[in-house]
Amino acid sequence: MSDIPSRTAETAAGGAVDGDLARARDGDDIAFTRLVEPLRRELHAHCYRMLGSTHDADDALQDALLRAWRGLARFEGRSSLRSWLYTVATRTCLDVIEARGRRALPMDLGPSSDRVVVGDVPLTDVAWLGPYPDAGIADGPAGPDARYEQREAVELAFVAALQHLPGNQRAALLLFEVLGFAAAEIATMMETSTASVNSALQRARSIVAEKIPSPTQQRTLREIGDARLREIVAEYSTALERGDADALVALLTEDVTWSMPPLPHWYRGLEAVTDFAVRVPLTTCGSWRHLPTAANGQAAVACYRWNDDAGAHLGWSINVFGLRGRRIREITSFIGLDHFAAFGLPASLP
């Protein structure tokens, strides 16, 4: 008897969805919005994983939902609405990948620099990987058959590794390992054979396994705990604001890396990173202010740099940290005020 209320609720919910679907097919855009709204966040995260850019994900999702709205009459209900929307979103992203190619981090372009490069100039002809706000990431796995947690699947190392895969392999890996679709379902979604999907999965797993460090950031963050994580972010911010090189170096691993897309040069190892930090952000960039945030399921901080003309600290970069144990092994500074709006961050600080 205890199951009756829940089954009644499920039946009512199913009836509401069917009613909205019928109304949407008749041209009711409000009914269509009600149908897709519960899936919007996870579809957006899927587009980011495919494309490596929040801005591209915004555009791709908008395009995909427009395609779905216009093609709703072709949805015959043989699969779930969720599966069909993922089909439309995936094909939309594949079109973008074919037209634009993959996104990169500085380490994809060349070796690290041993000494600071003063006056490094942004490369504007490179499609750069971008950060993703944690507010758009769900917790846990997407389904019982998913191998990756949702937050693991947006970690920078994972998304960067995906960029080295052809579009079909990228899509197959995400649909199977992250979202838990069966190979036969994916074959239908991508209009190919199950054998082709399994082959794509095999090749994709091999490439991704070579590029992703272990353990994942999710495991590391659970091990060190929230209190130590807050300490790391606060100590990093304080070190930059005070120009304290010793305090900054104390937070870093011996093999730390620091990259700053869209700047092409990057640094590996404590000596090179210290040389860069002392000669650039700690001494020549002026005053800094910071706000803690979270990006790609990882610890992060928003950096604001003083601007004389504005008379304020303007948004400069989103710094995403990769941790090993209780220290920082990787800093990726995504430079550009255009990143701040997606994180709900102010454009300036006093």
TrEMBL record:
Residues 35-102 form the RNA polymerase sigma-70 region domain. Residues 233-330 form the SnoaL-like domain. Residues 157-205 form the RNA polymerase sigma factor 70 region 4 type domain. It comes from the Bacteria. Transmembrane segments: none annotated. Keywords: Sigma factor, Transcription, Transcription regulation. Interacts transiently with the RNA polymerase catalytic core formed by RpoA, RpoB, RpoC and RpoZ (2 alpha, 1 beta, 1 beta' and 1 omega subunit) to form the RNA polymerase holoenzyme that can initiate transcription. Belongs to the sigma-70 factor family. ECF subfamily. This is Sigma-70 family RNA polymerase sigma factor. The lineage of its organism: Bacteria, Bacillati, Actinomycetota, Actinomycetes, Streptosporangiales.
